[in-house]
Amino acid sequence: MAELWEMGARELAGMVGERRVSCREVVEAHLGRIEEVGGQVNAVTVVLGDAALGAADETDRALRRGEAAGALAGVPMTVKENIDVAGSATTFGIEALRDAVAVRDAPHIAQLRAAGAIPIGRGNMPEFGMRWHTDNALRGATRNPWSAGHTPGGSSGGDAVAVATGMAALGMGNDGAGSLRWPARCCGVAALKPSLGRVAQAGPGSRRPMPFAFQLLGVHGVIARRVEDLRLAFAHMCGGPGDADPWYAPVPLRGPGPAAPLRVAVIGSGPGDGDESGAVRRAAGLLAGAGYLVEERTPPALVRAAELHTQIMSAYGRVHEEQPPVETVASEGFVRFWAAFEETWNRAAGERAFDPMMERAALVAAWAEWMTHTPLLLAPVCALPPFRVGTDLDPGWLSGWPAALRATVAVNLLGLPAVTVPTGTSGGLPQAVQIIAPRFREDLCLDAASAVETGTPSLTPLTPLLASRDHAGDGRPPGTR
């Protein structure tokens, strides 16, 4: 029998609900796993052990009284440090916010708790969530369990590593420019970036200002090892209340059945080294084998969508008009990253839009029309593989980054859902693709991702490989059980 920390969310909740294992045993197993491997990867920054055990004991008492178990009863989850968890600091990876303790849960965290999930720790992130590698002055760097020499991704890197190594069954993060999908791809796990408006970003009593760019482009989502666990968590994190979120829309979780066969458009990896194209081809073959109609087809104005994303994030990604110098609030690494990336960032914005929201509306309409013919889009998460730590400080290398991430940020601009799902390994590192659907059709993404997952060997959980790994590996996951 597998260890409890190796099991997925649905399996754990079923065992707790049937009283085949106690909720305390589940939490203790994951706390033990954090103790065993946490120091090697630095993914869980704050362990909420006492609170988690208290919640587990409360669940066990309720079950002994004959009360019904929640759908996520006893499932341990990590929560990224820019999401409110009552009694824990929401730091955004910033030293100055070390003591910014939240008085209440974010709406979706409260909903997940109500379904039985238990926050077990906080996930590491880069400062402000504005880097695709996880490191900060407050908590330090998170290491990729596949290779300490390669990035775990960012900005939800801590949660991706925690899930990949069995320290939690679920990781709660968010995604404004690939921050769920990129670390999931780097760590060999699955992730769901929901549609804009699906998950409330603010609830009653919310007082923290949120920049317009993050209201429009960023959404809360989930990381898991199995697609079925993404689906389970998603069903219990988008029920409101969204009173303080003007974008929130209570929409049914499953839409009308599409006409069969369902069409899937495939776009290539662009400037990558060939590995990402191979992952897309494997996924396309699995989808075709599952009855999807797979075809080469390019969505409208993909380059322009990425440019508009950059323009909006650049112009409206700040809370205050006057900001302190970045070197006074961020780590040396982040300062170096931003100095290296600023010129590329400005160039990636393209021709300035007279009214970016008006132009965005035209692109949303064009994509909606295009997706009436081909509802699903299969694409790389990034056209480049996980980079070696420190590579993102090189201005020359960074010059190709916006093009490599083009399909991913277009999804954020347009408010569409996307699921990242592993497809195997190459050179000892995991690979993955993303599947994109029309707005509020997460069900189509998840169904297609399940078809890809069914034909792909499971990559996680794994025990961290401490040595830096070059690309001469045998393709097998390190330390898998």
Give the helices and strands, then pairings.
Layout: H1 9-17, H2 23-41, E1 44-47, H3 49-64, E2 76-80, H4 107-114, E3 118-123, H5 157-164, E4 170-175, H6 181-187, E5 190-193, H7 212-217, E6 219-224, H8 227-234, E7 263-266, H9 275-289, E8 293-296, H10 302-316, H11 332-348, H12 356-373, E9 376-380, H13 395-398, H14 401-404, H15 406-414, E10 418-426, E11 429-436, H16 442-454
Helix pairs in contact: 2-3, 8-16, 10-12, 10-15
Unreliable spans are: 471-481
In the CATH scheme, the class would be Alpha Beta
Strand order of the largest sheet: 1-3-2-4-6-5-10-11-9-7-8
Q: Structural class of the helix and strand makeup?
A: alpha/beta
Spatial extent as radius of gyration: 21 Å
Question: How many DSSP-defined strands?
Answer: 11
Tell me the series of helices and strands, N- to C-terminal.
HHEHEHEHEHEHEHEHEHHHEHHHEEH
In the CATH hierarchy, the architecture is Alpha-Beta Complex
Domain Amidase: 25-446
Biased composition (Low complexity): 457-466
Region (Disordered): 457-481
Family: Belongs to the amidase family.
Q: What features would you describe in this structure?
A:
The model is unreliable at 471-481 (pLDDT under 50). A hairpin with a 2-residue loop joins strand 10 (418-426) and strand 11 (429-436). The chain is 37% helix and 13% strand. The protein has one domain (4-454): Amidase signature (AS) enzymes. The chain starts with 8 loop residues before the first helix and ends in a 27-residue tail after the last helix. The protein has 16 helices and eleven strands. The chain has helices at 9-17, 23-41, 49-64, 107-114, 157-164, 181-187, 212-217, 227-234, 275-289, 302-316, 332-348, 356-373, 395-398, 401-404, 406-414, 442-454; strands at 44-47, 76-80, 118-123, 170-175, 190-193, 219-224, 263-266, 293-296, 376-380, 418-426, 429-436. The radius of gyration is 21 Å and the shape is globular. The protein is of the alpha/beta class and 481 residues long. Strands 1-3-2-4-6-5-10-11-9-7-8 form an eleven-stranded mixed beta sheet, sandwiched between helices. This is Amidase. It holds the Pfam family Amidase. Belongs to the amidase family. Residues 457-466 have a biased composition (Low complexity). InterPro entries: Amidase, Amidase_CS, Amidase_dom, AS_sf.
